[in-house]
Amino acid sequence: MNTDLQLLLENDDGEQTSASCTRFAVIWQGKEIWVQTAGNGQLLIGVDVEEGDTEYANLLLRPLATNLVSLQLEMEPADPADLLEDEHVHTDECNH
User: How would you class 46 by CB atoms within 10 Å of its CB: exposed for 0-12, middle for 13-18, buried for 19 or more?
Assistant: First the structure.
């Protein structure tokens, strides 16, 4: 399965730059909105979970036919265990 995304970035002057990555984020209103492939030709769009979040939303974009797509909103529970791991203070001695 190919997870590469081909991007075209355009500046205000109309100049385009191409890039390739497995996922990318857009910072919008202080939130990271991540875009990546989800397999089976689907594109996953999701927001990173922050402390205090009880759930988060993912959007799945699926091609249906010529010029048609399906967009599905999925609400996922935030994993409290993942949020607790962030309380660790990283120092030079912690080896990660």
Answer: buried
- pLDDT tens track for 52-79: 777 777 788 888 887 888 888 777 777 6
Token pair listed for 38: 């989800």
Per-residue tokens: 73: 């909103």
Tell me if the pTM is above 0.70.
no
Cβ count near 45 (within 10 Å): 17
- Please state, in angstroms and rounded to a whole number, the distance separating the CA atoms of residues 82 and 53: 11
Alpha-carbon span 84 to 49, nearest angstrom: 12
Burial class (CB within 10 angstroms; exposed 0-12, middle 13-18, buried 19+) of 4: exposed
In the DSSP assignment, the letter for residue 10 is E
